[in-house]
From TrEMBL, chains A, B:
NCBIfam families reported for this sequence: aroB
Ranges for domain 3-dehydroquinate synthase N-terminal: 143-255
Protein name, entry field: 3-dehydroquinate synthase, chloroplastic
Lineage: Eukaryota, Viridiplantae, Chlorophyta, core chlorophytes, Trebouxiophyceae
UniProt EC number: 4.2.3.4
Reactions the enzyme catalyzes: 7-phospho-2-dehydro-3-deoxy-D-arabino-heptonate = 3-dehydroquinate + phosphate
Compartments in which it is found: Plastid, Chloroplast
Length: 452, 452
């Protein structure tokens, strides 16, 4: 380990390739002028961001949101995603789902199509629709899709468009996604392409969807040759994250969402990582207050990164830490065997391992990552039987490939720092893959993935 | 006829509905502040526009385009579509298809996927691809779709994505549409949704595609319940209209494209309308010089309207003159029986008839429209056997319906003026429909549509 190479500001930019990006807990001077959308031109420090979040919350309490939280509930937090005229709020609270007033505030026309699935519908659809209908003159329709990543396809998406057209929805209609990331991604793309752009609201009901998929406007479906290959960048009008809905979430789904929270800690926020090391069991126990904190921090980090780089020309790619390895794992097994967060967990361990082999991070970070993910009940190695050839083959069709060069998000520097780069010795990637398919893992551990 | 009602500036705005728009040959003062995209805030007069077009052409001759046109060919015209950082040029000329240098100037990455169909491929694909390959280090793939509006579907679109993924194209790849409007619309949407947005170039090979579908970024496919219901607004990086390709176009296809040129005259440009009355036979005879003039004027008009209102919040809707009636005709027969331009021709006659019945235009305009369209070999009544009930039913799922109210583009005032409005006596619409399904037509004519 060549720790001496790493200074405190070791985040690097690979100059020759214009889309390279780097992101660290501290504002990186080179991030200035990197924003193509023209919305913001410098990365706010964590300090500023914390202050901004607080301000938004205060404003809301006095103006936008219900001034008095429902008895016995915590006051909602609000994160603003700052994208010019496409900005929108994320409401994080305890009794939001039946507060139809918030949703209806963001509905433009008079027609609503709620898209959900066979698992979520029996739990929440009826009361949600009832609330909306009571709110006013909405015409509310719903469509219930089959549940599962394997149904995140164009074929199933067709059912949403069929329903919309049968219901004679016009282009001012609002599509509401009520469910996890699969429903959110599909509904967003359905809305984006419906008559070239209907409105869209996210009501995420999994941790994964609350901290990641519902924020930032990436929508789409899978193709047999790749995950999320067909889609659009399309922002919702608001996001409503209700802690109540997490009560019914299976343990394994809940835990897998925690991997993405760990990711925010690793790429950007050492304080969040420390907090998780102290509180991860509270999240597993669905403590609302702890959950709201973790979701608030995660959304705030993602919102800021997305505001800097909506279309993933640069820093947004850092959100893919562990995802290139993770997608290979998902693709090799067939979608839906491991959960997304589980694949990402193993992928982050591989990315950390590779970063360590490159001499870019201290072994401590690898160890803490493995320990935290284990406590979050996540796998820390790829599934047994997965081959090096599968990694090679699935990683090369991944979107991180640009003009033939594989680019990866890797950790570099102290906790909370990462880089997106194609500039590494390919042998080191091979070494990491070999170690993990042999189930040696980062720490020589032979733990099998926790897929229950 | 209550001609006294019509002053020279009779274009009207229906105040209660915010998306109402009106457009006339003269800049309408109310158009100022109507632009939502913020690109431009007032409509340029025809005068200005003519001057601007000329300037662009001069600049091009000296800088961008080949300075010396190929021996025996006319110098290319260039129309600029002004959409901020999504602006792009339309090249209109005689020997552009094999001038791979122009295309390659607008290609970003190194991968190109040419999308075409079984009719166009044998005519132009090989030499086009050869030219591109000779240009440089491009990896050029192609996919050949079945020909016909009935194949403008999600199912067929899938073939484009399959090919792109099998060829391992990344998100920097450029999709090139080589063909008519069907190929252009499908390829544009394929590019828009491929990895959430690949690049896109239009090489239109029909009059329809050159004057209309390749300009302005509307892309999409049909759904069994409606035309172009699934799609995106997605701008190409350039458009290449080569007169040579029109030589192989069947007479009926050529003629149907002229309907859209007539449309530009009716909604905006009385001079173009006059010019058509003098030169329509030259167009039917494929006179390159006349064709380039008509295409140049049409593109310039459409480009200006699109620049004012990219997302069809207002004036862009005027481009749908005759289209609501026309779509009903196409839908009632099943797509692909009549050509789009033919349906629009009959639709424009119906729109003119209705405008006359409302007392908004002089009977002269109806008569001139019918005569010009007849000379262009277009139908001027709906197909025999089509019922009033079919019109009613198909017009109400049309996108012009907003929150339940049917809005139509109608002529109002002197030639070159129109309005988009839902504010008319519904009985007048019924009268027009009745007259046309009884084949009385505007002038009591019993002409049957020219569908050969
Ligand atoms: N758009 C993005 O930026 C982005 C980011 C991350 C992940 N994703 C996508 O999100 C998907 C994964 O999301 P996910 O983890 O939410 O999976 P998911 O949507 O499949 O939901 C997980 C399971 O939980 C069920 N469920 C959802 N809410 C429930 C509730 N409240 N109670 C009980 N059961 C409930 C679902 O029906 C499903 O069976 C993947 O397709 C991934 O590609 C997208
Ligand atoms: N996007 C828009 O703004 C817009 C505007 C108008 C029309 N459109 C769409 O465009 C389509 C109609 O376009 P179109 O009229 O070009 O139809 P098309 O694409 O079907 O082409 C007409 C026929 O001509 C053939 N063809 C094309 N080029 C040829 C050539 N050079 N030589 C010989 N044959 C040739 C085609 O294969 C086809 O058989 C419709 O789907 C319509 O919805 C879109
Ligand atoms: Zn993820
Ligand atoms: Zn048309």
């Amino acid at each position: 380990m060549v720790a001496g190479e790493l200074g405190p500001c070791s985040a690097t930019l690979d100059r020759p390739v214009p889309t390279v990006a780097s992101f660290s807990g501290r504002p990186h001077p080179l991030l200035v002028h990197r924003n193509k959308s023209g919305c913001r031109v410098s990365a706010a420090s964590q300090q500023t961001r914390r202050v901004r979040a607080a301000t938004v919350q205060a404003q809301v309490a006095s103006a936008e949101a219900p001034a008095i939280p429902k008895p016995g509930t915590l006051p909602p937090k609000i994160v603003n995603v700052d994208l010019g005229d496409r900005s929108y709020p994320i409401y994080i609270g305890e009794a939001l789902l039946n507060d139809a007033e918030i949703v209806s505030r963001h509905v433009q026309g008079s027609q609503i199509l709620v898209v959900t699935n066979t698992t979520v519908a029996p739990l929440y659809l009826e009361s949600f629709v009832k609330g909306l209908r009571e709110q006013g003159a909405f015409k509310v329709e719903s469509v219930i899709l089959p549940d599962g990543e394997e149904h995140k396809s164009l074929q199933v998406l067709q059912q949403v468009w069929d329903k919309a057209l049968e219901s004679r929805l016009d282009r001012k209609a609002t599509f509401v996604a009520l469910g996890g990331g699969v429903i959110g991604d599909m509904t967003g793309f359905a809305a984006a392409a419906y008559q070239r752009g209907a409105s869209f609201i996210q009501v995420p009901t999994t941790v994964m969807a609350m901290v990641d998929s519902s924020v930032g406007g990436k929508t789409g479906v899978n193709h047999p040759l790749g995950k999320n290959m067909i889609g659009a960048f399309y922002q919702p009008r608001c996001v409503l994250a209700d802690m109540e809905t997490l009560k019914s979430l299976p343990d394994r789904e809940l835990a897998s969402g925690i991997s993405e929270i760990v990711k925010y800690g690793l790429i950007f926020d050492p304080e969040l990582f420390n907090w998780l090391e102290e509180n991860v069991e509270k999240l597993l126990n669905r403590d609302s207050k702890a959950m709201m904190h973790a979701i608030d921090r995660s959304c705030a980090i993602k919102a800021d990164i997305v505001a800097l780089d909506e279309r993933e020309g640069g820093v947004r790619a850092t959100l893919n830490l562990g995802h290139t390895f993770g997608h290979a794992i998902e693709a090799a097994q067939g979608y839906g065997v491991w959960l997304h967060g589980e694949a990402v967990a193993a992928g982050m361990v591989m990315a950390a391992d590779m970063s360590f082999r490159l001499g870019w991070i201290e072994p401590e970070i690898c160890k803490r990552t493995v320990e935290l993910l284990k406590r979050a009940k996540q796998p820390i190695t790829p599934p047994k039987g997965m081959t090096a050839e599968q990694f090679r083959s699935f990683m090369s069709v991944d979107k991180k490939v640009q003009d033939g060069k594989l680019r990866l998000v890797l950790l570099r520097g102290p906790l909370g720092n990462c880089t997106v780069t194609g500039d590494f010795d390919p042998q080191i990637l091979e070494d990491t893959i070999s170690a993990f398919v042999a189930h040696e893992g980062i720490s020589g551990s032979s733990d099998l993935p926790n897929t229950q």
